[in-house]
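User: Second chain of the day. Same drill as before.
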Amino acid sequence: MGCGGSRFDKRKDNAYDLFTLPLQFIGGEGADDDGCPVDKVVFSFAKGEKEPGSVYEVDKFVAKSEEAMKEIATSTYQAVSAQLQYLEKEYGKPSADAKKEYVIGGKYTLEQAHKQLSAVLASLKENSGFTFEEVKAEEPKAEGEAEKKEGEEPKMEEGEAAMMEGGEEGAAMMGMEEPDLYAGDSADYKGFANFPLLLLKEMTVNPYFGELVKTDTIHFEFAAVKKGGFSFPTLDVINPMALLKKGATPGAFAGAAGLVSSCVNLCEAEEKEVFFAGFAGEQDFETLKEIAEKKDKIMFPGVMAGWDSEEKALKSIEGFEGKSNQKLTKILYKVKTKVFSAVVCRQFVTRLRATIQTQNEKDGVTYFLLEEQKGEAKTVEQWIKERDAPPAPAEEPKKEGEAEKKEGEGEGEKKEGETAMEGAMEGAM
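Assistant: Same format as last time:
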């Protein structure tokens, strides 16, 4: 696994590209799936000693332990605060004069990133039922930012105006969701019992936050493959938060990543056709083509948020104007599998295992038809037992010149006229 110079070694260097992160996968040269039934971030969090439901003390998406939820909520809140403060320190606060450049991972403008992270903090404070200590930091003023006069309405940003004037098209050109996509959400997100569902919602409606959480998921997977025959991957192998620089520390979102992944896994029920659209980098795309050619296996760690139609999936990746360090290819996966339907209109799947059956290209998008790998679900305990079982004894090699025993031929076969007893005695001498 992960031998030096393999395509996987090249892939891992770009594994945290915000464009490719949502649909990152294990498979292809140097990255075989070892069959672990849960995300490695979950496995590592529990040190392989518990099943997902007992690790996080949840019943599907309902939390049973206020203390466990508070711990994850606190670490998540502080990580988001740290990242927001880093962005403000590095780039300043968004202002009417700020350039509309995609500076955050090449995918988000400062305004988009700031707005999304601020929304997550506000939602956690309003809905979780927990109080949080604010991370103290200097609040820099954006260069050229004017003081707001008393009674003066804030000036509408250029991008916001485009969204209001252009409607859905304007929103797509900003690389954001439609303004009213989740407007009909009537689910209950309040209180510690609903905290896992609150996290799932915020990861969905604020994709920058969702990608930060997914970063820890992918790190644990890639670190495990890189180490080969892993025990419990840690965060000292590679730094998944390279994009965060001096913001949130590596592992800060591991609690949120494991919690949501486990809950989705426990809730997957109705089998549906689901569509996932996104981007693949150069090495990822070459790997996908090889997997498709061989109809080989692929596994997607963590939670993937899909759509119930091809049209909706494709629309979700229209209009991105950002710039990755990689050459990107638009891709769309179609698969029939059990899903968890939530957040108004999304279909969620976790740790999807499949084979790629077909590949074709149309209108600049490469389509992959997946066939789910079905089988009896294993518990973590069963998987560890099988993983650690001693290898089956090898067959003893046949001695040179040893003749094959014919069917029905006995070792004590009598010679003509010889009694059975005489034959046995002669063989004993």
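The chain is about 40% helix and 15% strand.

User: Great, on to the next one.
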